Amino acid sequence: MAPTKYYHSVQLQQDKCQGCVSCVKLCPTEAIRVRNGQAEILADRCIDCGACAAGCPYHAFSVRSDTLEGLTKYAYNIVLPAPSLYSQFPASVPLTDIWQGLHNLGFDEIFDVSLASEYIACEIEDYIKNYTGGRKPLISSTCPAVLRLIQVKFPELIKQVVPVLAPVEAAAIYVKREAVARLQMPPELIGVWFISPCPSKETNIRQSVDVQHTELSGSFGLAEIYGLLLKNLGGGHELHVRTGSSYGLSWGAYGGEIVSAGITNGLSVHGIDNVYDILEQISMNKMPQLDYVECLSCKGGCLGGLLTAENKFVAECNLRQRISAMRAAEPDDRHAAMAQTMVLQDFPTSAAYRKKLVPRPMMQLDDDIMEAMKKFERMEEVLCSLPGLDCGACGAPSCQGLAEDIVQGKAHEIDCIFKLRASVHKLSQGMLELARQIPIYHEPKMLNNTEDEHNEG
Q1: Is residue 175 a contact partner of residue 348, using CB atoms and an 8 Å limit?
Q2: CA atoms within 13 A on the CB side of 320
Q3: Helix runs in 298-415, H state only
Q4: Reduced to 3 states, what is the DSSP secondary structure of residue 301?
Q5: In whole angstroms, what is the distance from residue 344 CA to residue 119 CA?
Q6: Residue 369 phi/psi, 5° resolution?
Q7: For the chain, how many helices (H) and strands (E)?
Q8: Among residues 107, 233, 301, 438, which is most buried (max CB within 10 A)?
Q9: 347: Cβ contacts below 8 Å, ≥ 6 apart
Q10: Alpha-carbon span 235 to 97, nearest angstrom
């Protein structure tokens, strides 16, 4: 069977890479190696979290996304702004001005992802209440980078992931279906676009981990759209934008998902390194007292995504001010507040569209089981001979990673600087011993005397 070909929005620019191994130590799935002074990304392990791009001192990583020229491929274009977009602007900037700006950029219709978040929040709430499947806590499925991390490093936790769609996927399914019926237009002429704060969502459009078939046509990096929006805010167009309450808007900041789903015994974790640590704890069954864990790969949640424009702390302040102002005008009861906006007919439920999450195959030493066992034994031998410091100087993230690479023929033992130093020391000692055994050549004395007499003459 041919290996799976993975799409990745995070790309390495070889001409900028200095082989400094910073990215090697940052990657949570050990998907990067540095060989011959250049970084290499292992496609089957990369989860597009963007940690490498965020931490590279030479800016050697870029993120692929669409451009506004893509709108010309469709007769009608719908954009799905999320709370992360609104957070880039001060709370004094009305949402209507932002929507007008999006219309000025060429979008025919706007549907607020925060409204879809409320429908998904209700699904999460019901699932937790009716859950009798075993171990807890249950794990959020909102962040595609986290889902891929679970596939790669924690496949035993898949059964604890709540099987609901990401709000943007549910929103795309609804608006595409509704627009086709309302406009009497073929679906291939309708473009549905997302403004993404992070690379993992861009990747998920091209190769989805959680939905059977995405209705998203593509996505734009938030930072790129932000600059254009600043020049196009406001306008006189009459727009009808379906939007959510403050509870749907709260999904933009970490902890908002828990609040909107009415979860009182939950934990919010953000930052891929922190998420990794918490998933490790859950894997060891050290947190059974919790009902739910909201996991977001970016520090600060979506507001701290790699593709955002504003400082994540300023963005969080902007968003929380908007939430506070909206909540002051809403009913005190959460369900009553959400009911005012959840008036859509036949909004899609996750069960009909959700893709089953499965483990991603990793570290297949060989297709032949017997040969794989031999390689594994060899890998254990090599690992025992390495220092176990996991320093990363060899270009692999750990000694185990180097041992695997050596067995696969992709590295050598002397790539380890400690093994290299030992080899050089052994070689130098051998050369010294050899030098002692070889007689030293002396020039004939007669030749020296002849030269002296010639000089005197």
Answers
A1: no
A2: 12
A3: 312-328, 334-339, 369-385, 399-407
A4: helix
A5: 10
A6: -60, -40
A7: 18, 11
A8: 301
A9: 116, 119, 170, 174
A10: 7
- The confidence score (pLDDT) of residue 364 equals 64
d(CA 131, CA 402): 42
DSSP 183-229: HT--GGGEEEEEEESSHHHHHHHHS-SSBSS----EEEEHHHHHHHH
Q: How far, in Å, CA of 218 to CA of 212, rounded?
A: 16
Q: What is the pLDDT of residues 111-124, one digit of tens each?
A: 999 999 999 999 99
Select from 450, 436, 443, 366 the least CA-distant residue to 408. Answer: 366
End-to-end CA distance of the chain: 89
Query: 């931490």: which residue's tokens?
Result: 55
CA distance 299 to 185: 41
The encoded tokens of residue 316 equal: 């969080």
| Burial status of residue 231 (CB atoms within 10 A of its CB: 0-12, 13-18, 19 or more) | exposed
Amino acid at 316: E
Burial string for 146-172 (b: 16+ CB within 10 Å, else e) reads: bbbbbbbbbbebbebbbbbbbbbbbbb
Whole-number Å distance between alpha carbons of 214 and 431: 65
The answer to whether residues 34 and 19 touch, using CB atoms and an 8 Å cutoff, is yes
Contacts of residue 414, Cβ cutoff 8 Å, sequence gap at least 6: 420, 423
- Of 192-206, 214-228, 246-260, 391-405, least confident by mean pLDDT is 391-405
Q: Model confidence at 3, in pLDDT bands (50, 70, 90)?
A: low
